[in-house]
Amino acid sequence: MALRHNGKTAIVTGASSGIGRATAKRLAADGANVVVADIDENGGQETVQQIESKGGEAIFVEVDVTDEWDVEAMVETARETYGGLDIAHNNAGIEGTNDPLTEQSLEEWQQVLDINLTGVWLAMKHELPVLTEGDGGAIVNTSSIAGLAADGSAPYTASKHGVVGLTKAAAVRYADEGVRVNAVCPGVVRTPMVERSLEEHPDAVEAMTDDQPLGRMAEPEEIAETVAWLASDESSFVNGHALPVEGGKLA
Ligand code: NAD
């Protein structure tokens, strides 16, 4: 049976760790050539190695998603190395601090918004022309349940709500050019992002799972599976959605 993403080219930002790494590995296992994009070179090279050790194809590009020149170079790498672009998973993000809104600095607010929201906009700005010049394709942006309801800090929640709006705007505008744009909204996922906050507050694991019907966190692979589906022809009529993958917490 043909692999679901055979011969396609994918960009995954934030692919040096957590959800991005799991998605890069999932897409590569499904046959895609993957541009592993991240600000962290060591983690990115490790992702490439893990893909290559399973017979997959990947290349690392060092990119700060807030830097337009870097983002342009990332998309150009996909075009030059693999001849185009079919899938983009715009996923790089940071959690920021959990301080109350009134105690946050303007710099903290701007950093979270720059990476989590402007970074997704910049990526789409440069990915869409390449996606539309080929046979179209699919974009999956990483939002969060914090993109659907208040969860975490004010800047984080605002940035993730922004990703949902940006996703819808692009989905409506580019549908007739053959590009579907959706967002994935994970609940709590066991990644280095969450492990960092558990180091600071070890008892928080219960608070994170108490109101969780499945009684546990997600594994990054469970989010990657959803992204790979949203990026595939199997979801060909799903467009402009913010899909919660949160084990029923919002239910
Ligand atoms: P992670 O910290 O494991 O991975 C985030 C990656 O983004 C890292 O590799 C980091 O180097 C990269 N990154 C950070 N700033 C960057 C920049 N300026 N340019 C390029 N790369 C940059 O975290 P994760 O949990 O895998 O998070 C991935 C995405 O999922 C984030 O957008 C996050 O907000 C979102 N998310 C995570 C959870 C969760 O519970 N882990 C839940 C909902 C949404």
From TrEMBL:
EC number per UniProt: 1.1.1.47
Domain Ketoreductase: residue ranges: 8-192
Keywords from the UniProt entry: Oxidoreductase, Plasmid
Pfam assignment, any one: adh_short_C2
InterPro entries the UniProt entry points to: KR_dom, NAD(P)-bd_dom_sf, Sc_DH/Rdtase_CS, SDR_fam
Broadest EC class assigned to this enzyme: oxidoreductase
Entry annotated with the keyword Oxidoreductase: yes
GO MF term list: glucose 1-dehydrogenase [NAD(P)+] activity
SMART domains, alphabetized: PKS_KR
PANTHER family to which the protein is assigned, alphabetical: BLR0893 PROTEIN, DEHYDROGENASES, SHORT CHAIN
Family recorded in the similarity comment: Belongs to the short-chain dehydrogenases/reductases (SDR) family.
The protein, known as: Glucose 1-dehydrogenase
